[in-house]
Amino acid sequence: MSHKWLKKEAPVWVHKEIITQQQADKLLALYKDEKPAVGILPLLGSLLVGLGILSFVAANWQTIPHLARFAVIVLAMLGFYAAGERFMRRGDDRLGLGLIAVGLISFGAGIFLIAQMFQMTASNAGSFVIWGSAGVLLTHIYRSRFLFLLSAAILNVGQFYSLSNFGTFSFVAFLVLMIGLGYYWWRNRSAWLAWLLGLSAMLQSAFLIAEFDLNGSLYMIPVMILYVLGDWIRTRDTAYPLQNSALTAAFVTCCVAVMVQDDGRLFGFTALERTQSIVFVIVMAALLALSAIAKKQQGRLTSGFEWLLLLPYFYTAEAASFLYLLALCFFSLCVLWRGYAEESRFKVNLGTVLFLFSVLLAYVKLAWGFMDKSLFFLVGGILLLGLSWYLNRRRRRFLAEEGAERHD
User: Fold this and answer.
1) pLDDT in tens, 352-378
2) Which of 169, 147, 161 is nearest to 112 (CA)?
3) How many domains in the chain?
């Protein structure tokens, strides 16, 4: 709980006689101001120190004897781990985790430096899998969201490396990411980690489709599966981040479709892909039905507007780009409306940003080809400034009314 937020809200609760002044003082004493910005500095500082040491070693690598190279790698890694463990036991968790993260980076760098030293040639993403597995293990040992993020980044980069250099999808890296980090998230149920895990799953799905050279439209199937999974999870704090990661992927996909659909690329099935097209329609219809059933059972049919981003508009051929654009705009307005209805600052701000972005995308799509470029930027800037002023005015009015209601 934020000390700053509690300090602001406690007087309101005392005024409304929800709690007494003594209880408010105890709450403020319990949730002390931890100054999170200062806590991040050891993490960043440790990473910079570690990267500086590794850069120095790499720059002088050729002049160091083989045995000394191996000793430097092992001692650096063990030294960072030992120092991190020591600070953790002394209660300085931030600095300790920073040093352990540098130890993990040293471990990964050591894998590649040793491979270079013995002229070992890689044919898959095995090095990244080993590195990422070590990160997953450390994440479970130290129960750290920072190490979770670092491990996810290693495994996602490793998958991209495998695809771009070897043209293969590493199922081992995918399983380590989804099972290892997924199990950690399931035990801790952090909304932020669920969102990150969902985005990683969406990114890995895109890599899988690219590796098998499948039609880009099929990407919406894993997106829809993750979204439906969120519908069937009854604990909404757990489900929302998963669905939001799926909707993030769908929003980006719609933006891409707006820009390329007119050229007939990426989305839509050709005559030779009739089987894929039939399978796609059947699977998407089944997933939409499952989503509708779950929403009805939980009384959340009003959230069905989210399907706007998930429907296959590419079947409309020439009108597809325009329909994707409308879907983006209507979805953004629905998020904005839900924010006002639920008195949610986050949704109001998010809806405003998404709508402004959708309008900008529409303007670029419709005006770039025929309008003089200087006039294009001038008119676009005026349009966005005007919309921003109007939406921010509405947002400030809403927040002022919400604040007035709280103090009544």
Assistant:
1) 888 888 888 877 777 655 555 455 556
2) 161
3) 1
